[in-house]
Amino acid sequence: MPGSPLSSLRTAMRRWFGEPPEDAMPPTEAEDARYAVDRAAIEQLMGMPVGHLALYEQALRHRSILRGEPASHLASNERLEFLGDAVLGFVVAEVLYEQFPDRAEGYLTRLRAKLVNGRYLARCARRLDVGTHLLLSDNMDQANGRTNRTILADAFEALIGALYLDQGLPAAYQFIVRTMLEPVDLTRLAERQDNYKSLLLEYAQARGWPQPTYRVVHEEGPSHAMTFTVQVLLHGAPYGEGQARSKKRAEQQAAEEALDRLEAEEDG
To answer: How many other C-beta atoms can be found within 10 angstroms of the C-beta atom of residue 122?
Structure first.
């Protein structure tokens, strides 16, 4: 029988005040043998000892490895991603609230959006080398799933959810601050405009590269509702592609994809 609402609330309160839930006791050595992840590797990844190893295994388990299995949506990392997203949003909001006491809601909201978006989360995941630990199907692995921005961002949030369930809010708070907030100048980030074409141009100029160029590779649809596919080229080779109802928006998407690729190469 499922627990009562009061029981669920007590469990949530234990987690909130830093106590692991009753069912998150460290597994035995015999239980450890069943897991597809190595405890030492996970503790190095998280930067701290962990208790319930199965939570971290689930956080790294992409749905592709469970294709065709019943209840795969429960065994993949999607539920932990949902929880981690909420914990992440709360922690970032609190840190920004404390660090910028003279700033209005709009400023804090815009800055939080720059921290909890897929691109930045994937970059944090790459710094930790999360991709190496992902549990993927062979097909997804061969399709560069370990460097895929969405898969990395989702796994990063799922790991936050796993850590929260395993060790409570203080541990999750510490992990988020260390891996996401300390490596970035928040004031400078808040002032930066997310114009990906400008950011890509700055990236190229800082390295003495030729200016990126953009080309339309496909147009489709009626004249009043055209869809444009645009590639951005660096050193004459395509580095990103975007598709949108306007050329400008497609160029922005292409530049963002190119920056993702460049940062992945730089972090790797």
So the answer is: 26
196-267 fold: Double Stranded RNA Binding Domain (3.30.160)
Domain ranges across the chain: 5-191, 196-267
User: Which residue numbers are catalytic?
Assistant: 85, 157
Give the DSSP letter string of the chain. Answer: -PPPHHHHHHHHHHHHTTPPPTT-PPPPHHHHTT-SS-HHHHHHHHTS--S-HHHHHHHTB-GGGGTTSTTHHHHSSHHHHHHHHHHHHHHHHHHHHHH-TT--HHHHHHHHHHHSSHHHHHHHHHHHTHHHH-B--HHHHHTTGGG-HHHHHHHHHHHHHHHHHHH-HHHHHHHHIIIIITTS-HHHHHH----HHHHHHHHHHHTTPPPPEEEEEEEES-GGG-EEEEEEEETTEEEEEEEESSHHHHHHHHHHHHHHHHHHHHH-
Q: How confident is the model at residue 157 (pLDDT cuts 50, 70, 90)?
A: very high
Question: What is the rounded average pLDDT for all residues in the chain?
Answer: 86
**pTM here?**
0.74
Q: Give the whole-angstrom CA distance, residue 209 versus residue 224.
A: 37
Task: State the pLDDT confidence band at 8, using cuts at 50, 70 and 90.
Answer: low
Task: Name the one residue in this structure whose structure tokens are 């891996």.
Answer: 179
Q: Measure the CA–CA gap between 242 and 259, rounded to whole angstroms.
A: 12
Task: Give whichever of 61-70, 71-80, 126-135 has the largest mean pLDDT.
Answer: 126-135
CA distances from 152 to 35, 88, 101, 119 (A): 21, 15, 32, 9
C-alpha 31: how far from chain center: 29
**What CATH topology corresponds to 5-191?**
Ribonuclease iii, N-terminal Endonuclease Domain; Chain A (1.10.1520)
